[in-house]
């Protein structure tokens, strides 16, 4: 039986559609199968690779930590073997017990945390515990141990001992009952410091720095003089602390020559020449001392309201009649006007922008002890006995080379009175500056 063309065409079209539909369904099924296979294989492999990567990172980190601990322990062993002056080494457990498991916090700073400690012999001490992982921490710690250990002066904080064990770095220092100068001036610790105490502190800090520059062998630049690094004893004797950033002149040198170094310090206290040229001299400490002196006079911060204290003080330096207006309001009228002129003159000279025109600390101390009232300076400041200590020699011993009076100073007589205020305006540097001249605005 024959089939007509009209009836056969739809049959052929039907067969084609069915074939196409089946092909698409097959392709989709294949793709889904492949996708599931990729997931089944890829996800576990990715998970395994991720876990392996994390494990490798942890192993590297652990190994690195072991190497760091080993390095620190080796440095600690070397430190224990280094010939040091007469102070002790402490075990970690002993210091933990002395601080009630490090709960007696009395302060914090850039170095770490400070604790009050009660040693077994009854001594009250301050434990300075360095933060772990601190960059350049071991170098700072080494300086903190070696420098106070060989420098002896009543206006430098005394080092009792240290601990370098199990990655810990701690200094055992004499306890300063009245905390830091910064706490009294800016954190309102206790009643405001009276004028006489402020002048005694100014002389004490000057004496400590003069010793570092003129009597230490080799000389030392502190490099971080600021109010938080001036500590006060029970009777408000000022002592310079924190030698972690100090720089030492070359061995055998009697004077501090300029040293090129990275800029380190605290904003507001740093010598502008040091900041701009990276050249450090003893005059950098002189500038910082001038800022501390301005803090004592004004009660202001080194940087306040985005303006440096030195810049703020310029208007007073240029007009003598305005000088009383810079005095800390907490003092009221309870200050000596003649002494105010003296210390403002010193602060002005110390903070000159050009370092060569600033006085030395020897000149500063001489001026303060001779021109401030007799109740401001004690016998030890007006006629200090300095222990000049030599560097560690080949024998590994530290020797005292001389006991001497303070540089070329003459003792201040009890009948001494403050010099009259400068007659001219603005306030003039007199004996302080190597090349006295009338100041102009910066």
Write the layout of secondary structure elements.
Elements: H1 5-81, E1 88-89, H2 92-98, E2 105-108, E3 112-118, E4 124-130, H3 137-150, E5 159-165, E6 168-174, H4 181-186, H5 195-214, E7 220-221, E8 230-232, E9 238-240, E10 247-248, E11 259-260, H6 272-277, E12 279-280, H7 282-298, E13 303-304, E14 307-308, H8 309-317, H9 337-350, H10 361-371, H11 379-382, E15 386-389, E16 400-404
Parallel strand pairs: 1-5
Antiparallel strand pairs: 2-3, 3-4, 4-6, 5-6, 7-10, 8-9, 11-12, 13-14, 15-16
Helix pairs in contact: 5-7, 5-10, 7-9, 9-10
GO molecular function, one term: ATP binding
Binding site for Mg(2+): 229, 242
Keywords: ATP-binding, Kinase, Magnesium, Membrane, Metal-binding, Nucleotide-binding, Receptor, Serine/threonine-protein kinase, Transferase, Transmembrane, Transmembrane helix
Which characteristics define this entry?
442 residues; alpha+beta; Phosphorylase Kinase, domain 1; Transferase(Phosphotransferase), domain 1; six-stranded mixed beta sheet; two-stranded antiparallel sheet; 11 helices; elongated; disordered C terminus; ATP-binding; Kinase-like_dom_sf; Receptor-like kinase
């Amino acid at each position: 039986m024959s089939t007509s063309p009209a009836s056969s065409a739809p049959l052929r079209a039907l067969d084609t559609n069915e074939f196409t539909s089946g092909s698409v369904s097959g392709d989709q099924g294949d793709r889904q199968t492949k996708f599931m296979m990729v997931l089944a294989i890829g996800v576990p492999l990715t998970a395994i690779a991720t876990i392996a990567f994390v494990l490798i990172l942890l192993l590297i980190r652990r190994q690195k930590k072991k190497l760091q601990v080993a390095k620190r322990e080796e440095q600690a062993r070397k430190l224990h073997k280094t010939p040091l002056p007469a102070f002790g080494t402490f075990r970690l457990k002993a210091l933990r017990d002395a601080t009630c498991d490090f709960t007696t916090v009395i302060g914090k700073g850039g170095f770490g945390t400070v604790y009050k400690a009660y040693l077994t012999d009854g001594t009250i001490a301050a434990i300075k515990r360095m933060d772990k992982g601190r960059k350049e921490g071991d170098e700072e710690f080494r300086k903190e141990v070696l420098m106070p250990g060989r420098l002896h002066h009543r206006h430098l904080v005394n080092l009792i001992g240290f601990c370098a064990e199990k990655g810990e770095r701690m200094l055992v220092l004499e306890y300063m009952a009245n905390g830091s100068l910064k706490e009294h001036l800016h954190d309102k610790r206790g009643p405001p410091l009276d004028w006489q105490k402020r002048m005694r502190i100014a002389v004490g800090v000057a004496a400590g720095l003069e010793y570092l520059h003129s009597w230490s062998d080799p000389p030392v630049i502190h490099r971080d003089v600021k109010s938080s690094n001036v500590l006060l004893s029970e009777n408000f004797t000022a002592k310079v602390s924190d030698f972690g950033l100090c720089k030492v002149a070359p061995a055998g040198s009697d004077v501090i020559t300029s040293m090129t170094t990275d800029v380190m310090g605290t904003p507001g206290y740093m010598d502008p020449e040091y900041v701009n040229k990276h050249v450090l001299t003893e005059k950098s400490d002189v500038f910082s001392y001038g800022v501390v002196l301005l803090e004592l006079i004004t009660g202001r911060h080194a940087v306040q309201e985005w303006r440096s204290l030195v810049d703020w003080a310029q208007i007073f330096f240029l007009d003598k009649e305005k000088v009383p207006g810079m005095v800390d309001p907490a003092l009221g009228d309870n200050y000596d006007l003649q002494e105010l002129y003296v210390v403002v003159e010193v602060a002005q000279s110390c903070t000159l922008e050009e370092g060569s025109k600033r006085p030395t600390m020897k000149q500063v101390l001489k001026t303060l002890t001779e021109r401030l009232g007799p109740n401001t300076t004690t016998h030890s400041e007006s006629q200090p006995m300095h222990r000049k200590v030599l560097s560690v020699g080949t024998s590994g011993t530290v020797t005292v080379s001389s006991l001497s009076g303070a540089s070329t100073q003459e003792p201040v007589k009890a009948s001494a009175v403050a010099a009259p205020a400068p007659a001219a305006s603005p306030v003039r540097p007199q004996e302080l500056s190597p090349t006295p001249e009338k100041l102009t605005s910066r």
